[in-house]
Write a structure and sequence with these properties.
Blueprint (H helix, E strand, L loop, with lengths): L2 E3 L6 E3 L2 E3 L12 H13 L4 E5 L6 H10 L8 E6 L1 E3 L5 E4 L3 H15 L4 E6 L8 H13 L3 E7 L3 H10 L2 E7 L11 H8 L2 E5 L30 H21 L3 H10 L5 E5 L4 H9 L7 H10 L12 H5 L10
Parallel strand pairs: 3-4, 3-12, 4-5, 5-8, 8-9, 9-10, 10-11, 11-12
Antiparallel strand pairs: 1-2, 6-7
Amino acid sequence: MRYLHLGRTGPKVSGIGLGCMGMSGMYGPSDRAESIATIHASLDAGINLLDTGDFYGQGHNEMLIAEALNGKRREDVILSVKYGALRDPAGGWSGFDARPEATKNFLACSLQRLGVDYIDIYRPARLDPNVPIEDTIGAISDMVKAGYVKHIGLSEVGSATIRKAAAVHPIVDLQIEYSLISRGIEDNILQTCRELGIAVTAYGVLSRGLISGHWKKDNAGPGDFRTHSPRFQGENVDKNLALVDALQEIATSKGVTVAQIAIAWVATQGKDVIPVIGARRLDRLNEALGALDVELTSEDLSAIERAVPKGAAAGTRYSEAQMAHLDSEAGSRH
């Protein structure tokens, strides 16, 4: 496992992170024992970056991670936690809250559920349109001074917001969707991050399984939020799966899987770009780890670009209503 500094001021993290969202029902039913075994296997493989959100399964994900980390050395794990999304008892989404007082309340609950004294990287999951980002980051900065948080991150925000946040407190990373078919950050956000010494932790590198080589149109079951994604609907999904077929030819020629090509592509975009893999099973984790050994030549990268040119995806990555609320999409619709 290679290790990289997360931004100019952040901790040393593994070259690939484990995103734990799918272990708490966001993609349909998951197996608790398999999830914990996957976390253990990732740690054994040298992955130290675990990503979660307090709203994944309404706290379930944090408690699952706490169970998996029981007995592990705290300093061996970098916990990245998102907060701010509001849920109702039926599992619905009811808004976002990143007010300073709410921020400290969410943090207190996460510390309790995770069973830790501090969180390594704490970040609002989105920009709260009703709260200046300076106020939100200022509140987390207070928690850094108090020892409850080590570093501050951002998620799904645009360049102007990144600059405002970084003026209040050093930002170690921006967590944002980045994949072969979600390349909007290349327009200006990536450049802004590099100018400010902020790393990118890229989620959705397999576009929620769409370009994994495993997803089929009849895969989605009850509780799978992908059924509401434009990229997984109607003619869009057929066009997007055709891109996967084109990638398959390249993967076959290199003796690797489509997923490994897609992960390796993200990993080659710079030492400041860390793929966060949403594996919730051991076999998927092992496949993702294999991507670290895939070397993409300039010829490979050119072939990938021809197979999946920028902007080739059919449909937006979220519904139009959600896209309208994404600060990171203010000037881009890729």
